[in-house]
Amino acid sequence: MAAISLQGICKRYRDHTAVHHLNLEVQAGEFMVLVGPSGCGKSTTLRMIAGLEDITEGKLVIGGKDVTHAEPHERDIAMVFQSYALYPHMTVQMNMSFGLLRASRLPRAEIEARVHDAAERLRITDLLQRRPNELSGGQRQRVAIGRALVRKPKVFLFDEPLSNLDAKLRTHMRGELERLHHELGITIVYVTHDQVEAMTLGTRIAVMDGGRLQQAGAPMDIYRAPATRFVASFIGSPEMNFLPVPAGDGTGRAWLAQRFDASALQGSAVLGLRPEELALAVDCTTPASSPLVWRGVVQRIERLGAEAYAQVRLQDAERAVLVRTAPDIAIEVGQDALLSADVTRLRMFDGPSGVAVPAHA
Ligand SMILES: Nc1ncnc2c1ncn2[C@@H]1O[C@H](COP(=O)(O)OP(=O)(O)OP(=O)(O)O)[C@@H](O)[C@H]1O
Ligand SMILES: [Mg+2]
């Protein structure tokens, strides 16, 4: 178990910077998830931690030791890839013990004990004599994790290990990984482009975009207080709504001017509210209790059983607004609707930069 410190890490290829001055502290025993869209630099970052990719600039410290230029085998790290990379001609048992037999001076009995312990934890004991082509995708993935476990490394790195599995197996393996982390207290850095995986697995998540770290924090802190408009729309499903600041000099605008710096309202700021932070009323004669309301027309209703989502078209919003409602709400497509904001959850983002505008206490 070891902490990892990334200090101003950069990765430049000839004419392209894949990672820009990344600063990130991973605590010992933490489950850190790197998440972001395709090409944002997640794998590059992970490969730099593993030593599979040179660090162009900056410093990398693992377990208190500067390993910026250390060879991969000097870092005491195990990496599990999306493509399990098992040896096809070897049994599961051989796949799991091969690395230790070759590179460590551990006695054979110790290696065997570790393989059996890992197999038991991963529930693959009865598969030890099979070859990879006799296993399902989920079983192969478990063998790949087992091969990493037997080395008892200081740090585990995972690069999208579940993306080849079907949805049900993915959910199951998420639970297994969580259990392993809990039982062994190991430090994990886990890469995914799936925000649900990030929210459910990470003790903290680091959101990247375009090679830059956008925000790092506990999943619910990021969900509630995203630092940028990019993070706001990337984390959370369905996505956060972006609503226009009410025009004119009505109560809504006056209320916003008190809550945020009035100067922020001068520009092209937008308001951020998640579907569950808006209430919908179709009887527009009832005065709303919220200081912030919008009028629109119901465009579509999706009833999912336990809840429903209404799409409401506002006159001056870029996109239809999604509102979560009770499944049996009596609304119809084409009806006028009044949306009111839960203002305790309201966020504002600066138009040009997309950076969150702080609210007054
Ligand atoms: N060897 C290379 N030479 C030049 N550019 C590269 C090289 N490897 C990666 N890149 C570029 O660096 C950027 C980051 O790539 P990276 O593989 O880290 O993305 P990622 O976040 O892991 O994406 P994905 O979710 O698709 O796996 C991309 O724009 C990619 O094209
Ligand atoms: Mg990748």
Keywords, please?
single chain; 361 residues; OB fold (Dihydrolipoamide Acetyltransferase, E2P); 10 helices; binds adenosine-5'-triphosphate; binds magnesium ion
Question: What is the β-strand count?
Answer: 19
Global Rg: 25 Å
Full CATH superfamily name of the largest domain: P-loop containing nucleotide triphosphate hydrolases
Strand content: 25-35%
Report the order of strands and helices. EEEHEEEHHHEHEHEEHHEHHEEEEEEEE
| Class inferred from helices and paired strands | alpha+beta
Short description:
This protein is of the alpha+beta class and 361 residues long. The chain contains ten helices and 19 strands.
Account of the protein in words:
With 361 residues, the protein is α+β, with helices and mostly antiparallel strands. The chain folds into two domains: 231 residues, Rossmann fold (3-Layer(aba) Sandwich); 117 residues, Nucleic acid-binding proteins (OB fold (Dihydrolipoamide Acetyltransferase, E2P), Beta Barrel). 27% of the residues lie in helices and 30% in strands. It contains ten helices and 19 strands. The radius of gyration is 25 Å and the shape is elongated. The chain binds adenosine-5'-triphosphate and magnesium ion. Adenosine-5'-triphosphate binds next to β2 and α1.
List the helices and strands and how they pair.
Blueprint: E1 4-13, E2 16-26, E3 31-35, H1 42-50, E4 57-62, E5 65-66, E6 77-80, H2 92-103, H3 108-121, H4 137-149, E7 155-159, H5 167-184, E8 187-192, H6 195-201, E9 204-209, E10 212-217, H7 219-224, H8 229-234, E11 241-244, H9 251-259, H10 262-266, E12 270-273, E13 278-281, E14 293-303, E15 308-314, E16 321-325, E17 336-341, E18 347-349, E19 356-357
Parallel strand pairs: 3-8, 3-9, 6-7, 7-8
Antiparallel strand pairs: 1-2, 1-4, 4-5, 9-10, 11-12, 12-18, 13-17, 14-15, 14-17, 15-16, 18-19
Helix pairs in contact: 2-3, 2-4, 3-4
The chain binds adenosine-5'-triphosphate and magnesium ion.
Magnesium ion (MG) binds at residues 42-43.
